[in-house]
Design goal:
By secondary structure, this protein is α+β, with helices and mostly antiparallel strands. It has 2 domains: 139 residues, Sandwich (Jelly Rolls), CATH 2.60.120; 78 residues, Arc Repressor Mutant, subunit A (Orthogonal Bundle), CATH 1.10.10. The protein has 7 helices and 13 strands. The longest helix is centred in the middle third of the chain and has 27 residues. The radius of gyration is 19 Å and the shape is globular.
């Protein structure tokens, strides 16, 4: 899928790669998530190199970034919102394979076509790079390559931990591991909070953890009765962090 086939919610801005909390474009140098993103490897005197090859795209909820099987012509950095990553299974079911938050780099396919789909769970903004132009830039910027390596290692760690969660943990442990892990990921960007924002629905959580939605709902409802968590708009509030962590033991 080319960039022209994506539904734009604003004008592509080649001179701006990021947006602020209100969705307004800002320069790469002033981007609020730069320190988490791949472009953070570049110095102020180099940032113009990446601004020349980037487009900012705004997405509405449920709007696709790319679909499984599309030609991998572009790669993306999330600058606001949450992106869901998923694959279609042969039996018609789906497997949610991850959620991307601001600073995450997605779509760097090893093959010529994407092996999974990506769509926005919330209003979101992404920086889009032509794959060939970005690859050429990486070849000229060793620090950019090092940042990509570090980000890939981080993603591998998340994937390995998720494999352990799916293969070795009981349902209650899976849900607790998800909530605590998601709190850490969001906290890295937004700061620590007792409230865990959950832009994804319970079906998304279930499909990510290899559980049924009934199981996820039952566990969350019990923890609410036991005053471990509290249901709040767009998330849950942790009332007893020790008991939530104890669910992992």
């Amino acid at each position: 899928m080319s960039l022209d086939s994506i539904s734009y919610q604003g004008t592509a801005a080649p001179n701006h790669s990021c947006v602020n909390a209100d969705g307004a474009p800002t320069s790469c140098a002033g981007c609020g998530i730069k320190r988490f993103a791949v472009c953070g490897a570049l110095g102020d005197n180099e940032i113009g190199d990446i601004e020349r090859i980037v487009h900012t795209i705004k997405l509405d909820p449920r709007e696709p970034v790319f679909q499984e099987g599309d030609k991998a012509e572009s790669i993306f950095t999330v600058t606001s919102g949450t992106i869901r990553l998923q694959r279609d299974l042969e039996d018609g079911r789906r497997q949610v394979i991850g959620f991307a938050v601001p600073g995450d780099f997605i779509g760097l396919a090893l093959e010529d076509h994407f092996s999974f789909s990506a769509d926005a769970l919330t209003k979101a903004s992404i920086c889009s790079f032509d794959r060939n132009k970005f690859t050429d830039l990486v070849g000229r910027k060793p620090l950019l390559l090092r940042r990509l390596h570090d980000m890939a290692s981080h993603e591998l760690g998340i994937a390995q931990e998720h494999m352990v969660v799916l293969g070795r943990r009981r349902a209650e442990e899976r849900v607790a591991a998800f909530l605590l892990g998601w709190r850490n990921r969001v906290g890295r960007i937004q700061g620590n909070s007792v409230t865990i924002p959950l832009p994804m629905g319970r079906q998304d959580i279930a499909d990510y953890l290899g559980l049924t939605i009934e199981t996820v709902s039952r566990i969350l409802a019990r923890w609410m009765r036991e005053r471990i968590i509290l249901d709040v708009p767009n998330g849950v509030r942790v009332l007893d962090a020790d008991k939530l962590k104890a669910a992992l033991r």
